[in-house]
Amino acid sequence: MSKSRLKVGFLCGYAPIKQWQLLCIEELSRVEQVDIHLLWCGVPATNNETVLESEKRKFLNRLKKYVLGSRRLWNVYYYLFIRNKISHFRPILDETILKKIPSMNFHLRKQGAFKYAFTSDSLAKVAGEGFDVLINLELGFLTGDILNTPKHGVWSFHHGNEEHYRGLPPAFWEIYNNDPVCGLVLQRLTEELDAGYILEKGFVPSHLRSYRRSLEMLFSVGHQWPAKICRQLLTTDFSTLQTKSTTRAKVYRAPSNKQIIYFIAKLFGRNFKYLFTSFFFAERWRIGVIQKPLQYFVDHDTQDLDPHWLPMAKKTIFMADPFGFESAEGSRIIFESFDYKTRLGTIGTTRFDPKTKKFDSSKIEISKPYHLSYPFVFKYLSKTYCLVETYTQNKLNYFQLQADGSWLPYKEVLSEKLRNDNTLFEHEGLWYLFYTKGEMGANLNLNIAYASSPFGPFTEHLLNPIKIDIRSARAAGALFYKDGLIYRPSQNSVLSYGSSISLHQILKLSPTEYRETFVNKIKPAAHWGGFQGLHTLSYLDQNHTLIDCQKPEWIWTNVFQTFGNLARRFIRRNRKSI
Description:
Elements: E1 6-12, H1 19-29, E2 34-42, H2 51-68, H3 72-81, H4 96-99, E3 103-111, E4 115-118, H5 120-129, E5 133-136, E6 141-142, E7 154-158, E8 166-167, H6 172-176, E9 181-188, E10 197-205, H7 211-219, H8 225-235, E11 251-252, H9 257-280, E12 282-290, E13 308-309, E14 317-327, E15 330-339, E16 344-353, E17 358-359, E18 363-366, E19 373-380, E20 383-389, E21 395-401, E22 407-414, E23 419-427, E24 430-437, E25 445-451, E26 459-460, E27 467-468, E28 480-482, E29 485-492, E30 500-510, E31 513-522, E32 533-541, E33 544-553, H10 556-577
Parallel strand pairs: 1-2, 1-5, 2-3, 4-6, 5-7, 8-11
Antiparallel strand pairs: 3-4, 7-9, 9-10, 12-13, 12-33, 14-15, 15-16, 16-17, 16-18, 19-20, 20-21, 21-22, 23-24, 24-25, 25-26, 25-27, 28-29, 29-30, 30-31, 32-33
Helix pairs in contact: 1-8, 2-3
């Protein structure tokens, strides 16, 4: 049952608060009906060591950790290259925000090598405070009655997919095992390690060439989740005991010396391969028309199909993000045309003749001094409009189709910068805007806003970010119906940007609810000729579907630009060091 206020405590150790932990606190502090407290917890000293004895013990521990231990290479590697290099791990310098939050101290007792429990006095004190939720930021493996003292339990992050990776260190074993995806879980803790009740779960790409970048990505997301769950507890009948993890996955530990050597060799080989491919090859997208209705792909793949491909006149240009619209000439196609010479996209149109299977000559319809892409087409009050992505601008750009087939500016609506693939859908009297936020990872986070009109003003959905998932967050075309059910095409960018499409059926859609389930994966057919990506699936007419596919190609302009960028970066770096 929803309630008027929540009392939430953050469980902190005596170590300084890290940047990613501060983001969690700040995000939750913005929820007006939540009262936040900081609970500083630690194991009280029980020995009478002299200063000399204490320093001797610390020296021996360091000697064992960094020189003599079976995992010493990992400890040295982490200390030199990871610990102070990850921005989200750095301790906060300005504690102004923390000083404004009420705080209290509690005692823990250690149980075994890794577990901690609250002392009886501290447990009674927590119970007396009447906390609704406790969030474990730094206390390791908690056990005992504290787990069930708050009404909604003790929550904790596990930076890994608990179905495959339990234990530590985060994101390491995914890279070691060539796993392209790393999981992230917010769970309500139980007595089982990393096997609690799942409150939120997301997936980010593993950066298989850099452990540091993997950690930066993994710890850059998820900080909104405690606030999101609290909003649900305040406004809905959400339960924190819905989904219990049944994992029996292996519990990992820090790698051995041999495994660290193998790991570093892997990173070296992957980076060498990447340098070669990134220098000499670039993505080239191509638009195709498939003679099947859009609904066909709910339960079919592309293996028995042969697209008709839109010709590309220039080697430096690719064409992507196709959408269909009706004109006086019949069905036409509007799309992004990207030129590697200018590094900018423009919006072009063409027409596909279903009888001759040929395309008219393409022409540019919309051009700006900044990048344009994803020309999403929709109808409103019998008129046809196009919402063009302007990634670097803080506005939504709408264009209206004219009687002569041209597109003219219609309206500009102020919005956040860095919104990707804005996709509108009308449902039960409201217009829903699906998008991803570039600053949170353009391919990672699905957000929704809603309004009574497709032109806004838009209100953010209660559950934003709806999902954090490299496999299915970013839009891949317009939502559509089949047999009264709603389907959402989304990009799966696990292997590379737009490598395939994940099709989902939407089960719930309202200003306070969203739920979807996976139904089909759509990727380029092998016989199409080496395509490595497919990231748009959209309607052309009742019998034809639009797609775009990508393959890496040698483009001289891109080679020169890549070397030029590297040279400029090298010069800037050397100027700073002088």
